[in-house]
Amino acid sequence: QVQLVESGGGLVQAGGSLRLSCATSERTFSRYNMGWFRQAPGKEREFVAAISWSGGLPLYGDSVKGRFTISRDNAKNTVYLQMNSLKPDDTAVYYCAADFDDDRSRWRHGMNYWGKGTLVTVSS
After folding, report:
1. What HEC string does 16-81 produce?
2. pLDDT in 10s for each residue of the chain, 124 residues
3. CA distance readout (Å), 80 to 43, 44, 70
């Protein structure tokens, strides 16, 4: 079981920025494709971003393109989500996820391993 721990959530004003981190002690972290998803109250889970095990081929959800950037540091076993120009609609619990599957077409539908989430609240 892969354990993923998110951090960096909090309260921010609209237009502001936050950087989320997801760390793991998993020694094979560099082999996992990683992703970020979010779920707002009363809404379905939404794909935010994903990145391949090598750090290339990032994917983004339509609602965050141009504002969010996913990156990873395999030496630190950590994946990041830089969120800029935040909007109240970005308010949600953000979840880190991991998967061995290299089929990028599947990533946005979900991954095998999940963290417990970190809350991001954007005030207007």
Report:
1. CCEEEEEECCCCCHHHCEEEEEEECCCCCCEEEEEECCCCCCCEECCCCCCCEEEEEEHHHCEEEE
2. 789 999 999 999 999 999 999 999 888 899 999 999 999 999 999 999 999 999 988 999 999 999 999 999 999 999 999 999 999 999 999 999 999 999 999 999 999 999 999 999 999 9
3. 24, 22, 6
Q: Which residue has the tokens 């004003």?
A: 13
Q: Are strands 118-123 and 10-13 parallel, antiparallel or unpaired?
A: parallel
User: In this structure, what DSSP letter does residue 100 have?
Assistant: -
Contact 33, 52 (CB under 8 A): yes
